[in-house]
Amino acid sequence: MFIRDSLIMSPKKITRKVSKPTREKKTVEQKPKPVKKTARLPQLVRGMKDILPNSEPYWEFVYNKVAGLAKDFNYGRIEVPILEETNLFVRSVGRDTDIIEKEMYTFEDRGGDTVSMRPEATAGVVRAYINHGMLNLPQPVKLWYWGPMFRYDRPQSGRYRQFFQFGFEALGDEGAIVDAQLIIIAHDFFKEIGLPVTIQINSLGTPESCQVFKVELVAYYRSRRGQLCDDCKKRLNKNPLRLLDCKEAQCREIRNEAPQIVDWLDEDSKNHFMKVLEYLDEVEVPYVLNPFLVRGLDYYTRTVFEIWPEGDDEEARQNSLGGGGRYDLLTELLGGRPTPAGGFAVGIERIVNAMKAKEVTLPPVKKPKIFLAQLGEAARTRALSIFEEFRAADIPVAEAFSKDSLKAQLEIADSLGVKFTLVLGQKEVLDGTVLIRDMEAGIQEIVDQRKIIKEVKKKLDQGEVGFNNK
Ligand code: AMP
Questions:
Q1: Is the CB of 340 under 6 A from ligand 1?
Q2: What tens digit of pLDDT does each residue of 394-426 get?
């Protein structure tokens, strides 16, 4: 299909390929097949989103910040597949979570295996840790990722069915320092991209202490069952911690008087949590102790945290930019050896949206200082190879080879604010020369084509190298 499409698009290519290189035989140009008009234009699948070049500066900026932090904190990049066995997510994220119950893209592949498009990446990272025997590496193993996730969620502002996350995971160490450092990385990231956030933090303790708390919580909510929303009535039996997550006004009022998990922490978890907070205080990372923060996934133990846009109201919670915590039991749950671990994930679309809304200034885009203009077919052809020579010499050059008029090209050169325009016409091609025009001074100079790189370098060296920092 792809091959056929590309043949239809470029009939000249076919002509060249199938014709023999003899002069006598004239090649027959194949006319492109008429494009069939279909009734309906192709549409984006609901919940999906194109990221266009005008957003790219934000994405690149965010990516560079994340990659820089990963380097500073010594995290190695890991790339795990989009498709995994469905069971991996069921076992890790939790059967009774919204993600597993309603949001996964799951299907049977042609071999009859049930697979899912990843709704998050931690499960895949832990699977890779087990599969590749990373337990034998010096611990903690520190990994970071960046890529698309898929959830069949109800699309709305800042909520898509395909969205990107980056995340940091540290596996193989139970120390509170790991939790604190993860939070510090998240904090530094938001500080460096210029987005004010609050870090909401809580501890869920161990599964045992959490179980005792859940009994208490269910007893409290049962006594108020009549006032709960329908979802919370179901949560009472299925997933009681999520009672604390409900956004319905009547349930939130009930929540305000509910027992608080910190009061039910076991001694070790309490000390662990205090240590995390102590570390954060030391580096003056501000946080809000949020007794209702439980996170949506089953695998969290002890420290949990979320990064909210400024404020700690319901709107901030709904627009959460990222979240994470410790998941000490996950590796074992997936069949590996017990491995304490922690991590966090951040949603990139939400960050980009927030940066745009806040009009965060991006670093200036580097623009080339040279423009290569051509006039006539022979010049255009020659210009192609001169352009390649500049690239090989690592000097960025702008061009508009599809334009015929010199005036139009000079206007583009002008709008780019280049310092020099190289002009190549019919005469220059025959003479083996190029005209260098100093755009500010308006002076022109004829230079031998073989010396053009050297000449341009010399001129640029008199200023900055290769770019306009406009
Ligand atoms: P989670 O994996 O649910 O803890 O989500 C971590 C972060 O990913 C959230 O704070 C959001 O920034 C982002 N996120 C989660 N779900 C979506 C979605 N459906 N669309 C866009 N971003 C999302």
A1: no
A2: 999 999 999 999 999 999 999 999 999 999 999
- With a 6 Å cutoff on the Cβ, whether 235 touches ligand 1 is no
Average pLDDT over residues 164-168: 98
3-state secondary structure 69-129: HHHHCCCEECCCCCEEEHHHHHHHHCCCCHHHHHHCEEEECCCCCEEEECCCCHHHHHHHH
Is any atom of ligand 1 closer than 6 Å to the C-beta of 172?
no
Q: pLDDT-derived band of residue 98, with 50, 70 and 90 as boundaries?
A: confident
Residue 323 in contact with ligand 1 by CB distance below 6 A = yes
Prediction pTM value: 0.86
Superfamily per CATH, domain 56-205+265-357: Bira Bifunctional Protein; Domain 2 (3.30.930.10)
Report the separation in Å between the CA atom of 321 and the middle of ligand 1, taken as the mean of its atom positions: 7
CATH topology of domain 370-462: Rossmann fold (3.40.50)
Residues of each domain in the chain carrying CATH 3.40.50.800? 370-462
Where in the sequence of the chain do the CATH 3.30.930.10 domains occur? 56-205+265-357
How many whole angstroms separate alpha carbon 171 and alpha carbon 180?
14
In terms of Cβ atoms closer than 10 Å to its own Cβ (0-12, 13-18, 19+), residue 441 is: exposed
- To the nearest whole number, what is the mean pLDDT of the chain? 90
Q: Are 446 and 422 in contact (CB under 8 A)?
A: no
